[in-house]
Write a structure and sequence with these properties.
By secondary structure, the protein is an alpha/beta fold. It contains five helices and eight strands, in the order ααβαβαββββββα. It is globular, with a radius of gyration of 16 Å.
Length: about 190
Amino acid sequence: MNEKLISNIEELTASFNLIPTTRKSELRELSISIKEDLANDNQSRLIFVCTHNSRRSQLSEIWMRTAAEYFGINGIQSYSGGTESTAFNSRMVDAVKRFGFELEILEKGDNTVYQQVMSGQSFGPKMFSKKYDDTHNPNSNFIAVMVCSHELLYPTWIPKLMTIHLTNRELMMKRSLKLEERFCMSSLY
């Protein structure tokens, strides 16, 4: 992890006490699910879902993977997807780079494919805009985290505020936790 990213993470962790109690309660639900997965399977796979998989879900994916590394939590794998695919928003790519994340371009185009890099090595799956059921994402035994408040845009396969255990790709999730739109900006701080 580069020094700029470490410095920025340290600055953010110093403000954990500013997280509202209601937010901590929501995040506690997510952390309990992650801990249960790690205890049962030695892994926890999370898919962050938003409409276009262009900003919020991509940011959540990169933050979850990086936070797990920073805090030394093994077994967490993060992914992202949308109800449709467009492109990883170039302004979001620029913003994460300014913060200290390292991304390299693997394939340039309308939907450019990026790879997160840490300590000179590829880190995590390829990052590009894709649907939630893309073959790059797991199709069973994962936690789906909604990071968009446009819930009417989601198909009926997303049960809201309930825990279910399914392995069917059509229904697509182990658990669904509906969190507010700004989850990705405050979830790890």
